[in-house]
Amino acid sequence: MKLLIGLFLSVFMVACTTSKFNPATNFAIPNSPNDQEWAERAADLFVGYFSNKKEASRDTTGSIFRAEMEVVIVPIWKEKRETGEYWVYFTQMNPGARDRPMQQQFFRLKELNANTLEVKTYALPLDKRGKHRLAWMDKEPLEDISPKDLIEVQGCEMWLVNTPQFEEYLIRHTGEKCPASTPMHDIHAYHLDMRLSVEHLKMKMQIFNKANQVLFEHKEYEQFDRLSEEEITTIIESIEK
Fold this sequence. Notes:
It contains 5 helices and 13 strands. The longest helix is centred in the first third of the chain and has 17 residues. It starts with a helix and ends with a helix.
């Protein structure tokens, strides 16, 4: 009887533990680049919790486009990797309003050639976005939907280019402008370049209004630092209170 009770408790504890979000799993960085193909490593490195807090603290313009922001990117639909597709969920938010994300997008990464991943952008229909505002906190994010539920955002194609000599990856829009999936502050479209490394995600944006005028433009790359497991855990605990 004691053995049966012990086995039951063991299974129960494992079930409780594995059902909880684990930053070490969702945001894990591969320890050895040599153990992975470059495309797989690039897709894994794209995943993370990033903050521009240090950059924002130095801003003196007061612009809403230079305010403190967080970017969360989590892997989804991992079974698609068997077909050479890497799917991630991207959300951008103000740390004071994490339950009201400014952007919710999906990226599909697929190898285009030996040094380039094609990145296509997708969005949920407007009536489904509210339900998934904190989906990144789930252990298996967005398992209740599939790629067929998404809408491809035309004009947002990007390339992720392997540049090992710089120890980072370049992500660039191949088109001129990408329409904003969630228009706000008269934002109609944008152009985005990114640099991705183990420590950082750097962004450089141009933002346009409906009249095709530039509302904002980064002169230099803005740096978002990759947060540690401890920092992410603290944020999750603050949300769950």
